[in-house]
Amino acid sequence: MKTLGRIAGHLLVLGYLLATAAAFLFTLARIAPPVGREAMLVSFAMMAPFQGYATHVYELGAEGVRADGTRQDIDLSPYYPTTYGERVVRGYLIMYRVFHSDADGIAAFQRISQIIRDRELQRGNAYAVVQAYWKVWPLSPDGLFTLRKPPTLTRDVISLD
Predict the structure, then answer these.
(1) Are 160 and 129 in contact (CB under 8 A)?
(2) How many Å apart are CA 86 and CA 65, to the nearest integer?
(3) How far is CA 129 from the centre of its chain?
(4) What share of the chain is helix, strand, coil (3-state, %, to 5)?
């Protein structure tokens, strides 16, 4: 029984190492393994420091447009009830863009916009359209939010229903 436990432990460690190696290979070369994709996705998040370096911050935003044309920013925190960093990562929809295509990513943003519009309607906010956009500002050595104000804060529209 002791030998069986050791074998199981070794197999567990081997599986972890293989999943991590597959995630590392996917991060560097975008080569997905033919099997074990789910295990690789778990390790993929650990590869974040190797996935690139950004000079700007991108934060998902949404704006409701009423029938009369007035616009109002929508607080997304009820839709992403997590920490700021997790909310930003989820907003990127990495799995859609990496494993599918940019068109699938845009379609996903459009579905999210529709869901937010429907839920905002339940809250009494009758928006004709919900427009998803990126709030973009440059990184600063003085802090993440230092330059998150005009004129360095810009908006890039993602989708329009």
Answers:
(1) yes
(2) 27
(3) 22
(4) 50, 20, 35
Q: How many H-runs (helices) and E-runs (strands) does the chain carry?
A: 5, 4
Nearest-angstrom CA–CA distance, 64 and 69: 10
pTM value is: 0.63
Distance between CA atoms of residues 45 and 56, nearest Å: 20
**Which amino acid belongs to residue 99?**
F
**DSSP output for 88-109:** HHHHTTHHHHHHT-HHHHHHHH
**Contact (Cβ atoms closer than 8 angstroms) between residue 147 and residue 140:** yes
Q: Give the C-alpha distances (Å, rounded to integers) separating 150 from 87, 136, 137, 155.
A: 22, 10, 9, 10
* Distance separating alpha carbons of residues 66 and 131, to the nearest angstrom: 11
**In this predicted model, what pLDDT tens digit does every residue of 95-137 receive, in sequence order?**
665 556 677 778 888 888 999 999 999 999 999 999 989 899 9
Q: Looking up tokens 């996917």, which residue turns up?
A: 26
